Amino acid sequence: MEEREVQPEVNIGVVGHVDHGKTTLVQALTGVWTARHSEELKRGMTIKLGYADGDIYKCTNCPEPDAYSPEPKCPRCPKGSEPVLQRRVSYVDAPGHEVLMATMLSGSSLVDGALLVIAANEPCPQPQTKEHFMALDIIGIRKLVVVQNKIDVVSKDQAMKNYQQIRKFLEGTWAEDAVVVPVSALHKANIDALLEAIQEEIPTPPRDLDSPPLMWIARSFDVNRPGTPPEKLVGGVVGGSLMRGKLRVGDKIEIRPGYAVRSGNKVEYVPLESEVVSLRFGNVEVEEAKPGGLVAVGTRLDPSVTKADALVGSVLGRPGELPPVYDQLTLEYHLLDRVVGFRGGEMKMAPLRRGEVLMMTIGTNITIGMVVDLKKDEMTVKLQRPAVAWKGARVAFSRRIQGRWRLAGWGVVKN
Ligand SMILES: Nc1nc2c(ncn2[C@@H]2O[C@H](COP(=O)(O)OP(=O)(O)OP(=O)(O)O)[C@@H](O)[C@H]2O)c(=O)[nH]1
Ligand SMILES: [Mg+2]
Ligand SMILES: [Mg+2]
Ligand SMILES: [Zn+2]
């Protein structure tokens, strides 16, 4: 197989209000049900970031959008059609539940574009429809397709009414002209038109392949089954997406801030050094990884340091080439005008206060931070958990409002 057929070239976030059908849509696009953890299956909700790769094929015989399919066969052509692979896409499935907003934000830092899933059988916008939409803006994602889902459970009139609500919601925003594609994720209806929209609206961005590799870690695992004999144990695995550069099997790597070591109530972070022993996209092993797609990096690390997402929020690169780790960040910040994301309307955002505790999302790193210094457009935040950052990096922050962390604004790192 050619390399381009293995490594996805673009990452697309799937966001939107709880239960609007994000995970079902990812399954329609990839054949994969991303919820794997028993708690997720039991509660029918996404809790951790999920991801799955899917293909976009186009039949050379058929008109658009019929020509598009996630599978290498054309449902409309009898024998003899040869659909051509257009792109392989990594879909990052975000949780929609309001308490998991930080996870949604950390997932958004990995993607190049987004599908905003809106269920046609509820009034639009729902609280997290608004909050996720705003988060895309804050993180700087401007490639968007709106997916009007569940059209199988509404009448044509209801679907039209809901479509008008969606258009009204987008009116006057950066996404005013966004394409809205009606689908039924459950029945895999109109997925061809969605693939066409993805091809047109979410191009693969240019990639920086020459800089040293840099990857946000989004998942980390111990892949050994309990009871594996010691000689068969494999090293820890970390998953994430390369922001830039290339990574090859055999490369020496460093992970920062690294592994948390607790003694009493003190926590120290220990940077880790290891080597890339394998690289995998889905089930396919590759020798080299570039930006695009979520890659699983096999290492020689003791799996006990990677298990249970212990390294999420750290950054992986080559030894000595990582940006610095900070305990404190100075940000030029912007506060949203209004608090969104809860039922019963919106309210005006109060100014920040010195001493206030915020939830910071720095790439995939989610940490509590305290505002220790505050000027007009600038704040300094002391982080509970140190973060790799660099001048110009974009950071989102949430505030505790009415009992929940609500998206409150963003900042640009000045350190
Ligand atoms: N009728 C119908 N039901 C759907 C459709 N898409 C999803 N559902 C159902 O809606 C429910 C929620 O779907 P999920 O895919 O888990 O929704 P989600 O957005 O991933 O939810 P969270 O991860 O909890 O935010 C499930 O019962 C799905 O079967 C659709 O197109 N039509
Ligand atoms: Mg659900
Ligand atoms: Mg889900
Ligand atoms: Zn065809």
UniProtKB/TrEMBL annotation:
<keyword id="KW-0396">Initiation factor</keyword>
<dbReference type="GO" id="GO:0046872">
    <property type="term" value="F:metal ion binding"/>
</dbReference>
<keyword id="KW-0378">Hydrolase</keyword>
<dbReference type="InterPro" id="IPR009001">
    <property type="entry name" value="Transl_elong_EF1A/Init_IF2_C"/>
</dbReference>
<feature type="binding site">
    <location>
        <position position="19"/>
    </location>
    <ligand>
        <name>Mg(2+) 2</name>
    </ligand>
</feature>
<dbReference type="InterPro" id="IPR009000">
    <property type="entry name" value="Transl_B-barrel_sf"/>
</dbReference>
<dbReference type="Pfam" id="PF03144">
    <property type="entry name" value="GTP_EFTU_D2"/>
</dbReference>
<protein>
    <recommendedName>
        <fullName>Translation initiation factor 2 subunit gamma</fullName>
        <ecNumber>3.6.5.3</ecNumber>
    </recommendedName>
</protein>
<dbReference type="InterPro" id="IPR027417">
    <property type="entry name" value="P-loop_NTPase"/>
</dbReference>
<feature type="domain" description="Tr-type G">
    <location>
        <begin position="7"/>
        <end position="206"/>
    </location>
</feature>
<feature type="binding site">
    <location>
        <begin position="184"/>
        <end position="186"/>
    </location>
    <ligand>
        <name>GTP</name>
    </ligand>
</feature>
<dbReference type="GO" id="GO:0003743">
    <property type="term" value="F:translation initiation factor activity"/>
</dbReference>
<comment type="subunit">
    <text>Heterotrimer composed of an alpha, a beta and a gamma chain.</text>
</comment>
<keyword id="KW-0648">Protein biosynthesis</keyword>
<feature type="binding site">
    <location>
        <position position="23"/>
    </location>
    <ligand>
        <name>Mg(2+) 1</name>
    </ligand>
</feature>
<dbReference type="GO" id="GO:0005829">
    <property type="term" value="C:cytosol"/>
</dbReference>
<feature type="binding site">
    <location>
        <position position="59"/>
    </location>
    <ligand>
        <name>Zn(2+)</name>
    </ligand>
</feature>
<keyword id="KW-0460">Magnesium</keyword>
<dbReference type="GO" id="GO:0000049">
    <property type="term" value="F:tRNA binding"/>
</dbReference>
<dbReference type="InterPro" id="IPR022424">
    <property type="entry name" value="TIF2_gsu"/>
</dbReference>
<dbReference type="InterPro" id="IPR015256">
    <property type="entry name" value="eIF2g_C"/>
</dbReference>
<feature type="binding site">
    <location>
        <position position="77"/>
    </location>
    <ligand>
        <name>Zn(2+)</name>
    </ligand>
</feature>
<dbReference type="GO" id="GO:0001731">
    <property type="term" value="P:formation of translation preinitiation complex"/>
</dbReference>
<keyword id="KW-0479">Metal-binding</keyword>
<dbReference type="InterPro" id="IPR004161">
    <property type="entry name" value="EFTu-like_2"/>
</dbReference>
<comment type="similarity">
    <text>Belongs to the TRAFAC class translation factor GTPase superfamily. Classic translation factor GTPase family. EIF2G subfamily.</text>
</comment>
<feature type="binding site">
    <location>
        <position position="46"/>
    </location>
    <ligand>
        <name>Mg(2+) 1</name>
    </ligand>
</feature>
<dbReference type="Pfam" id="PF09173">
    <property type="entry name" value="eIF2_C"/>
</dbReference>
<dbReference type="InterPro" id="IPR005225">
    <property type="entry name" value="Small_GTP-bd"/>
</dbReference>
<dbReference type="InterPro" id="IPR000795">
    <property type="entry name" value="T_Tr_GTP-bd_dom"/>
</dbReference>
<dbReference type="Pfam" id="PF00009">
    <property type="entry name" value="GTP_EFTU"/>
</dbReference>
<dbReference type="GO" id="GO:0005525">
    <property type="term" value="F:GTP binding"/>
</dbReference>
<feature type="binding site">
    <location>
        <begin position="19"/>
        <end position="24"/>
    </location>
    <ligand>
        <name>GTP</name>
    </ligand>
</feature>
<dbReference type="InterPro" id="IPR050543">
    <property type="entry name" value="eIF2G"/>
</dbReference>
<dbReference type="InterPro" id="IPR044127">
    <property type="entry name" value="eIF2g_dom_2"/>
</dbReference>
<keyword id="KW-0862">Zinc</keyword>
<dbReference type="GO" id="GO:0003924">
    <property type="term" value="F:GTPase activity"/>
</dbReference>
<keyword id="KW-0694">RNA-binding</keyword>
<keyword id="KW-0547">Nucleotide-binding</keyword>
<feature type="binding site">
    <location>
        <position position="62"/>
    </location>
    <ligand>
        <name>Zn(2+)</name>
    </ligand>
</feature>
<keyword id="KW-0342">GTP-binding</keyword>
<dbReference type="GO" id="GO:0003746">
    <property type="term" value="F:translation elongation factor activity"/>
</dbReference>
